[in-house]
Amino acid sequence: MSHSRVFSCAALLIGFAPAAWAQADVPIPKSEVQKTYPAEAAAAGESAFVQNCAFCHGRDTGGGESGPDLTRSMLVTQDVDGDKIGPVIRNGKGAMPSFPVSEQELANLVAFIHTQKAIAESQVGGRRGVDTEDLKTGDAGRGRAFFNGAGKCATCHSPTGDLAGVASKYQGLQLMQRTLYPRGAKVMLTVTLASGEKLTGAREYQDEFTVALRDAAGKYRSFAMSKVKVEADAPAEAHVEMLPKYTDGDLHDLMTYLLTLK
Questions:
Q1: N or C end of the chain, less CB within 10 A?
Q2: CA separation (Å) from 233 to 9, 149, 201, 216?
Q3: What's the CA gap between 83 and 250, in Å, rounded?
Q4: Which of 97, 85, 95, 14 has the alpha carbon at shortest distance from 45?
């Protein structure tokens, strides 16, 4: 499987066709077609799945805090030899982008997913989700180098400053979500009026016509874009810009490193 794209990265946050998944307390639906796959195909699929998909879906496809449980997916339940799984992986669906995989890679992934689903169907009781260990599949040393180098993380963050103890504050998938896209991060604006006066505050609204901020006193201020100069400090956008640049190895290594910051 190609590591030139982050096979796990997109699935990790938005999920694998999220509308198709049931909640964890709903009984696991039985596969419409019962089939036993060759052990060697399932083993090869497991290797690729653990390397590329376990971030979100868990080592056993059982999902986690926010990652969908593939054993409960109606898409998987209705799938026959990848006829439904394959198009979603290759073409994307909804918010999920497409990922290129060969026929053999797809067949192996299908074999592993269906094998795990069959195991889950035979079990009684609760299931394990994503453990922190599922995310420690890279090299912490390489992750540190990426943090300080190509990833440019160190330009805004410090392992002994704002990230000190981050792996204790955010567990497992929460940490990965915060890393890839820190939702809720405020965009700070500096608005310069025609008089030269500068106003700063958190962005409340902005389009091509209007910009609005809330200043330190909590007051809402709105201006016509044509009459002011606007400068934005948007730290979350740097995270978004990195999404298409990560390789699988980068992400695995970075997560393994961040999980050492306790």
A1: C
A2: 25, 22, 10, 16
A3: 31
A4: 85
Q: What pLDDT score was predicted for residue 94?
A: 61
Residues 176 and 193 in one domain: no
Q: How far apart are CA 193 and CA 170, in angstroms?
A: 40
Q: Which residues contact residue 113 at a Cβ distance below 8 angstroms, ignoring those fewer than 6 apart? A: 45, 49, 61, 70, 76, 85
CB atoms within 10 A of CB 218: 7
Q: Is 99 left (phi over 0), alpha (psi -120 to 50) or beta?
A: beta
pLDDT at 258 > cutoff 90: yes
pLDDT at 4: 37
Number of domains in the chain: 3
Encoded tokens for 90: 């290759």
Q: Give me the domain span that covers residue 221.
A: 188-233
pTM value > 0.70: no
70 and 157 share one domain: no
Q: Does residue 135 lie within any of the structural domains?
A: no
Give per-residue pLDDT as tens, 132-180.
676 788 899 999 999 999 999 998 899 999 999 998 888 777 788 778 7
For 159-204, the three-class secondary structure string (H helix, E strand, C coil) is CCCCCCCHHHHCCCHHHHHHHHCCCCCCCEEEEECCCCCEEEEEEE
Structure tokens at 223: 């201006």
Q: Say how far apart CA 78 and CA 114 lie, in whole Å.
A: 11
Contact 118, 31 (CB under 8 A): yes
